[in-house]
Amino acid sequence: MKLLIVLAALVAFSECLHKMPLIKGKTARQSLQEKGLWEEYRKKHPFNPKAKFVQTGVESMTNDADLSYYGVISIGTPPQSFTVIFDSGSSNLWVPSTYCNDQACQNHNRFNPQQSSSFQWNGQSLSIQYGTGSMTGFLGSDTVQVGGISVANQVFGLSQSEASFMASMQADGILGLAFQSIASDNVVPVFDNMVSQGLISEPMFSVYLSGNEAQGSEVVFGGVDYSRFTGQIAWIPLSSATYYQFNMESVTINGQTVACSGGCQAILDTGTSVIVGPTNAISNINSWIGASTDEYGDSTVSCQNIGSMPSVTFNINGNAFTVPASAYVSQSSYGCNVGFGQSDMGLWILGDVFIREYYAIFKPQSQYIGLAQSV
């Protein structure tokens, strides 16, 4: 009888979880390298992670050429499908529209408001600032379906123009998962509407990112997938309810502090592919691991050295989160790139390189994140 009760409870719990499968696809860097266009691209569009996190009254995003995790959502009645980046570092949902004729829009799926019976015009304009350009458009509302959840009257952005570098990106648009406090035009984010409309059992979502596998990654709305991690969850209080920002004590290699001495601020961000830190700090880390950096900020190592390179440990709220060289070095036919990026913004960004190692749980209402060792 006890076994039946436990099994029934597990079934009921699993039914409360809404899993959004993510595909690990080709990055813009990989696509451009195959076409022989990467050198030209990075000259015109240098990686500028700071642009995304500078609040100027408009929604911001950086031109990250290494983002590779995408999920499929639908908007409208009947539904129109789009691939989006689930971004915990921004708060708005936007997709290209049929009113945009830029090359970036022509390369992607475009939402047609006239083909949705549930679409409503909002009347407000929208501007999304990139490191090297912008997206402009307008706001509307419609039914948005995410991982089996149907969110009614969701306000979202429809682009009319897009920065040229978006033409090389795999995703059609962005679905922001950060706080409403940083949303352009104070739009209520998709996740907040899931909660207020009673569509999920718990006000939380979690993220699992696979390594080299194309399938298996997921965003879970309403709980956690215990099969994706091992050990205890380390709960970390947020220091700011804007991004998922928290205090980090130090960054160490072989027990030696190499960055963030005396403490610093960090952000857990699914919408940044690498780990970003202050220029001097990343330069020091690269020196410790034997990486060389070119004029565009790309750091590389000899692929033969990966097995002997040290792990990098991020010390957060009394917990040590270690990232081995096998995780922070990406290997391809073009060589071995190091997953550390430089910025003068002062904040650290723990992006996908970090999240692939640690299952990430986001509890915006109680202002906590949780981290556990991924399996």
UniProtKB/TrEMBL annotation:
GO terms for molecular function: aspartic-type endopeptidase activity. Its EC number is 3.4.23.1. Residues 1-16 form the signal peptide. It comes from the Eukaryota. GO terms for biological process: digestion; proteolysis. SUPFAM superfamilies: Acid proteases. It holds the Pfam family A1_Propeptide. Disulfide bonds join 100-105, 260-264, 303-336. Keywords: Aspartyl protease, Digestion, Disulfide bond, Glycoprotein, Hydrolase, Protease, Signal. Residues 69-372 form the Peptidase A1 domain. The active site is at residues 87, 269. Belongs to the peptidase A1 family. Shows particularly broad specificity; although bonds involving phenylalanine and leucine are preferred, many others are also cleaved to some extent. This is Renin. The lineage of its organism: Eukaryota, Metazoa, Chordata, Craniata, Vertebrata.
